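Tutorial handout. Part one gives the primary structure; part two gives the three-dimensional structure as tokens.
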Amino acid sequence: MSSISSIDTSVYSGLIESMQATSGKNAPEVAKTPTFSSSDVDNSKVDLSNYYSNIRPEDLLAQAGENVTKSAQDLDNAMVSALENGMGVNDVCNIKLAQAAYKANCAVFKAANEMSTFELSI
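Part two.
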């Protein structure tokens, strides 16, 4: 187990015991509040210097482009389905949701394109 995924669950034991109190007449009047000390905090350092090292910008741009294409097809399908069904309330909701997804994917594609062509000028 890596140090980033190790979680100290000992602080939750008091919470579990206090939650096992029954409801009604024999419930505690005041809930127990767990106390934490600074010694419970893990202050070890985690090296994240290579966290993003395996991400290639062209993969991000390609995936964003595929998402735009798929959301455009979903929007087209929602509109065709609405025309075939006589434009009910459900069809309107589907079109609005597909349109919002298409706009969001276009914004992500635009941002990914701008990041992939980022240039530092001195």
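Part three, for discussion. The mean pLDDT is 75. DSSP finds three helices and no strands in the chain.
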